Amino acid sequence: QVRLVESGGGLVQPGGSLRLSCEVSGRQFSTYAMGWYRQAPGKQRELVAHITSGGNTVYADSGKGRFTISRDTAKNTLYLLMNDLKPEDTAVYYCVAEDFGSWGQGTQVTVSS
User: Fold this and answer.
1) Distance between CA 93 and CA 75 in Å, rounded?
2) Rounded CA gap, 66 and 83, in Å?
3) Which of 55, 95, 103, 106 could form a disulfide with 22 if both were Cys (CB 3.0 to 4.6 A apart)?
4) CA-CA distance, 44 to 60, in Å (whole number)?
5) pLDDT of 23-51, one tens digit each?
6) More confident residue, 17 or 100
7) Are 35 and 47 in contact (CB under 8 A)?
8) Which region, left, alpha or beta, applies to residue 66 given φ > 0 means left and ψ of -120 to 50 means alpha?
């Protein structure tokens, strides 16, 4: 079983930036396919970004050009750098170990002036 702990959420003004982190248990983190998902109030959970074990990335259209997913295998940590945040980015963001179907507890991101 893989344990995931997200951090880095908070309140930010439109146009601001946040970096989410996800600490991942497990010795084979570099081999895991990982993703960031989000769920806004009243909406379905949706994919934000995905990274394969080989480092290939996929982004939802909503985040292309603004969000960057990356991993640090030495720290067993997954990141999501979010720039130029918009109010519609407000959601709970979840880190997911996709090969295991394991989800973190989520971290709240609120974009508001």
Assistant:
1) 20
2) 5
3) 95
4) 14
5) 999 778 888 999 999 999 999 999 999 99
6) 17
7) yes
8) alpha
